[in-house]
Amino acid sequence: MSGTALLYTDWLDEMEIIFESLLNGLLMGSIYGLTAVGLTLIFGVLKVINFAHGSILMVGMYAAYWCITLTGMNPYLAIPIVVPLMFYFGYFMQQFVIEPVFKVEKDVREPITVIIVTTGVWYILDNLALMIFGAKYRVVHTSVTGKLFELPGDIYLLQPKVYGFILTFISGLLLFWFLKTTLMGKAIRATSLDRDAASLMGVNQYKIYRTAFGIGTAVTGLAGCVLVPFYSVYPSVGIIFDIRAFIIVVLGGLGSIPGAILGGIIVGIIESVGAMYMPSTWTELVIYGLFLLLLFIKPTGLFGSKHDF
């Protein structure tokens, strides 16, 4: 084989590897986006950053893990069980832990005290999980764990990530439809824009807060179900995704659901393709650099605006 032919073959192999990395980054990035959707929804309505978001994801992952382990069911059949449980977990957490603070600071648009409360919830949930389950890394073995889809050109994609990608876009579209067309969705958007005006129109703002927090927690529970088939579960697992979620939400625009998914995809692609050419620490540097650059150029994020929805 001539030197030119060898160079061409090497170039094709390189392109296949890059394309595979792009696809894997797209898949994992969409799941990152799903973990951030709940956070951006809660911020869009309640106007507070939920520092317990990663711990809530951890709770969802443990719920999915035990549901699958104890019953032996397909990991995706656990979704109809875990998601409603997580909705009520978030609903009652908002009602009994966060709502009292809102009532005390009802004249404050963005109650800072709630940040302290959610930080406390973060530490409580993580340490409770450590006390109950120990520090052991748990891996669930399912019918899709370790399975691959083979595409032309020797490109391999992890099946759970592909299913996660599909579930991300289905849930994102359903949530967007819910917020735009249903009566409750319109009430959530109205409360997000002006809670006092919404209250004058007969909207119970505290019920809306509970519902929005419950929906955000349920979506985070869905992300936990998606992650469990290929990701280890342990008490501090939420910290990794918590940091990612905050970056993604700012990149996409605070309160923007499409922005959260797109931001997740951007981070996933940088992480996947960057790992081919640089150490993981440099990949993190690129992600944080992009994060800071966007804050300077467009502080509201890619899809951010003065309104949240």
Question: What's the layout of helices and strands?
Answer:
Elements: H1 3-46, H2 53-71, H3 79-104, H4 113-133, E1 148-151, E2 155-158, H5 159-181, H6 183-193, H7 195-200, H8 205-227, H9 237-252, H10 257-277, H11 280-297
Antiparallel strand pairs: 1-2
Helix pairs in contact: 1-5, 1-8, 1-9, 1-10, 2-3, 2-4, 2-8, 2-9, 3-4, 3-8, 5-6, 5-8, 6-8, 9-10, 10-11
Explain how this protein is built.
- This protein is an all-alpha fold and 309 residues long.
- The chain has one domain: ABC transporter involved in vitamin B12 uptake, BtuC (Orthogonal Bundle).
- Helices cover 74% and strands 3% of the residues.
- It has helices at residues 3-46, 53-71, 79-104, 113-133, 159-181, 183-193, 195-200, 205-227, 237-252, 257-277, 280-297, and strands at 148-151, 155-158.
- It has a two-stranded antiparallel ribbon.
- The longest helix has 44 residues, at 3-46.
Keywords for this structure?
309 residues; mainly alpha; ABC transporter involved in vitamin B12 uptake, BtuC; two-stranded antiparallel sheet; 11 helices; 74% helix; 3% strand; globular
